[in-house]
Specification:
Blueprint lengths: L9 H12 L3 H14 L4 E7 L5 E6 L6 H6 L27 H7 L2 E7 L6 E7 L2 E8 L4 E7 L6 H5 L4 H18 L4 E6 L2 E6 L4 H9 L7 E7 L3 E8 L11 E5 L2 E3 L2 H10 L12 E7 L4 E2 L10 E2 L2 H18 L14 H10 L13 H5 L30 H23 L14 E3 L3 E6 L2 E6 H18 L5 E11 L2 H16 L3 E6 L2 E8 L7 H13 L9 H13 L9 H11 L15 E5 H10 L1
Parallel strand pairs: 1-7, 11-13
Antiparallel strand pairs: 1-2, 2-6, 3-4, 3-6, 4-5, 7-8, 9-10, 10-13, 11-12, 14-15, 16-17, 17-18, 18-22, 19-21, 20-21
Helix pairs in contact: 1-4, 2-6, 6-7, 6-14, 8-9, 13-16, 13-17, 15-16
């Protein structure tokens, strides 16, 4: 039998390697920007067209390259950073494996112009699909310019798997933000389709954060700085009020390299315990400086995962630093233990006073209802109580004549209701004409049905009603828009601005009159007629946060996600008191929906309890 194992051609090998390093246009942006930083550049420009599909160009004023270096940088495993194995554990620079440029050249058309600062003539190199088409002298400013055109032009399958322009642009903005935050002393600019998105002047870290995320962050940053012999932590964390529902504004940098670590993230989130809800994520931009031999950065092709020699020690340091920063700037509540507490005295007075004992309604464990289980106040252990402490217990059962009369009237009405229910042959199981709905704890609505009762989650029910209403606006008729008395200006960061531009056509169908004003600014001229009580800017910002939670998924449907995001942000919130009429209307509209049983996320909108189930609970107890 003849031999069947053979070496792959270089072009195919490079394309396979490119699949590990170059996953999308943002991967090219990351590699090119990091190379510019390694070259010592102080001014870096990023130019993209069509979300990087047509053009990705990085221009810097770094050291430049010689003719030979310009040619060698496109060879696989060609690097200036490593000459012996020990160098792998003492790296402070970014690109060192020599795979990035070779991978990019394998799946795109690349043009490089570079020139040393002490030379008068530079070098131009043109490569397509790993093939060098030309290399010749050229006129160029000191530094390097690399233009990557038609990414994945020779790998159509990879190009077809790219997401929409808005999503790919968001990924590019993320990578640009990582490099810009890590290097605040470097000037950065970003142009997309001829418009300048970012113009970041050199400065300190606080100025860079404010330039990227907005001026409102300036007074919401808490500085962090902890120094030890092993590791140091510096940077900023955000006050609780700037926490969001998405993880997009959480940044860890190890030796100026952006990393992802759920373990370290937990250390910061733990410090906010009691300050923000479990569904919110705090802002932080933290830099961890550690000796290179104490970490391993060569564990992932994108180098965004790092192994630490002592991860637990860094966890404890981060958690302590965050807690110290929050408490130092009076963000965390503190207790004055020297002040004499009167709580014990208050309890003693309430328990041992000779006033008649009063029954205070206990709070129901409403979470148990959502799971369809019955809650009993006797499910949990009750502390033992001395009998003489409640000497007035008999008064709980004392009934005057008026109380007895009311009891007879109530029983009479119940018997009448039961008789009418038995004679009712209506096919509608949710009959409630003879029973007014009751609101529990301003969160749930209880209403009677023939077989028992149902408990409705008013927020989730309203989410389902609004969601289907907005979907009908898309398919049947647009919603009415109410013009605002004075137009409102909306300033967003570049990533959110790109997303808002993408969904403006859908928002207009739902009654939003929003116009792009330029850069990252929008003008709000009108709102849906039924949302006039909402704060326009805050509503759109919250809607974008909700929208970002699932826009990256494979099952993404833009219209459904827009409808869902607005429904979630405009639905009645827990704690809202509803009138009898409002509760009845919500019930009627809920059971007129196509899928009344679940909200858009698939969570139950109501729980049903039958007489048999209720009777079993009493019999078991």
């Amino acid at each position: 039998m003849s031999d069947i194992i053979r070496l792959l051609p270089d072009a195919i090998a490079n394309q396979i390697a490119a699949g590990e390093v170059i996953q999308r246009p943002a991967s090219v942006v990351k590699e090119l920007l990091e190379n510019s930083i390694d070259s010592g550049a102080r001014n870096i420009q990023l130019i993209i067209k069509d979300a990087g599909r047509t053009l990705i160009q990085v221009v810097d004023d770094g050291c430049g390259m010689t003719d030979t270096d310009a040619r060698m940088c496109f060879e696989r495993h060609a690097t200036s950073k490593i000459s012996k194995i020990e160098d792998l554990f003492s790296l402070y620079t970014f690109g060192f494996r020599g795979e990035a440029m070779a991978s990019i050249a394998a799946v795109a058309q690349v043009e490089m112009k570079t020139r040393l600062h002490d030379q008068e003539v530079g070098t131009q190199l043109i490569i397509e699909g790993s093939k060098v088409l030309s290399q010749e002298p050229c006129s160029h400013q000191p530094g390097t310019s690399i233009a990557v055109r038609n990414l994945f032009y020779n790998v159509p399958a990879r190009r077809n798997f790219l997401k929409s322009n808005a999503i790919e642009t968001k990924h590019i903005l993320d990578e640009f933000t990582h490099v810009a935050l890590a290097n605040p002393a470097v000037f950065f600019s970003l142009h997309h389709n001829g418009s300048e998105v970012y113009h970041l002047k050199s400065g300190n870290l606080r100025q860079r954060i404010v330039s990227i995320f907005g001026k409102n962050y300036n007074d919401k940053l808490v500085p962090i700085e902890e120094l030890t012999d092993y590791v140091s932590v510096r940077g900023f964390i955000g006050k609780p009020e700037v926490s969001k529902k998405t993880r997009g504004e959480q940044f860890f940098f190890v030796n100026n390299r952006f990393i992802k670590s759920n373990f370290l993230n937990h250390a910061i989130v733990k410090a906010y315990e009691g300050l923000i809800t479990d569904k919110n994520f705090p802002f932080y931009c933290l830099f961890i400086d550690i000796k290179p031999d104490a970490i391993d950065i060569n564990v992932h092709p994108t180098k965004q995962e790092i192994k630490f020699e002592d991860e637990k020690a860094i966890y404890l340091l981060l958690n302590a630093a965050a807690k110290h920063g929050l408490s130092q700037y009076s963000v965390m509540p503190t207790i004055d233990f020297e002040h004499q507490s009167t709580f014990g005295q208050f309890v003693d007075e309430r328990i041992y006073t000779e006033q008649p004992f009063k029954v205070v309604p206990s709070k129901l464990n409403t979470d148990s209802f959502t799971k369809g289980s019955y809650y009993s106040p006797f499910d949990k252990d009750i502390p033992s109580i001395k009998r003489d402490e409640f000497s007035h217990w008999k008064k709980l059962y004392d009934m005057d004549e008026s109380t007895e009369e009311r009891s007879v009237t109530i029983r009479s009405k119940m018997d009448q209701l039961q008789l009418e229910n038995e004679n009712d042959i209506s096919p509608n199981p949710f009959k409630h004409e003879l029973f007014e709905p009751i609101q529990l704890h301003d969160r749930y609505i209880l209403t009677q049905i023939k077989s028992g009762f149902i408990l409705i989650n008013q927020q989730k029910a309203h989410q389902r009603i609004l969601f289907e209403r907005y979907l009908r606006n898309f398919t049947q008729h647009p919603a009415a828009s109410q013009q605002t008395l004075f137009p409102k200006t909306l300033e967003l960061n570049a990533g959110d601005a790109a997303l808002l531009q993408e969904i403006i056509p859908e928002l207009r169908i739902l009654g939003f009159d929003i116009q792009f004003f330029g850069n990252t600014t929008f003008v709000i001229h009108g709102m849906p007629a039924d949302l006039q009580d909402e704060q326009e800017n805050q509503l759109i910002e919250r809607m974008l946060e909700e929208y970002k939670q699932s826009y990256k998924t494979d099952q993404f449907d833009k219209r459904q996600q827009v409808a869902r995001s607005i429904a979630y942000q405009t639905a009645t919130s827990p704690g809202t008191t509803l009138s009898k009429q409002a509760m009845q209307q919500l019930i009627d509209e809920l059971f007129a929906c196509e899928q009344p049983a679940v909200n858009p996320a698939g969570h139950a909108t109501f729980v049903q309890y039958s007489f048999d189930e209720i009777e079993r609970k009493f019999e078991n107890n």
